[in-house]
Design a protein that fits this description.
six-stranded mixed beta sheet; 2 helices
């Protein structure tokens, strides 16, 4: 184990946190960021995760093979990502349909 590399990683993680990075997934190269970092990002997409969740939407973009994403409520979608609001599914029962597994995507 290389403790010096781990210390470097922790220092970089702390710097990233101060700039809006909430978390890193080391296995999938995805980065959870604050919602405000994606507001004016071109080529953002939204995925409906399920209406039984507190945060039923994942808003994301892929930059140089790295997925940058945030999760959002219905209210946050309408406020921060109005360009995607026409794609949101509201008051629709998807149980038993082909879309019930979080397969709904939209792009802006």
């Amino acid at each position: 184990m290389n403790i010096e590399k781990i210390k470097e990683f922790i220092a970089i993680r702390n710097d990233l946190y101060e700039t809006g990075v909430i978390g890193l997934d080391l296995h999938s190269d995805s980065v959870h960021v604050k919602k405000t970092l994606l507001v004016d990002t071109p080529d953002i997409q939204v995925e409906f995760l399920g209406d039984d969740l507190q945060y039923p939407f994942e808003v994301f973009t892929v930059c140089d093979g790295i997925k940058l994403f945030c999760i959002a409520t219905n209210e946050e979608m309408a406020e921060l990502f109005p360009q995607l609001s026409g794609y949101m599914i509201e008051d629709v029962d998807l149980s038993g349909s082909d879309l019930s597994g979080g397969e709904e995507h939209a792009t802006a």
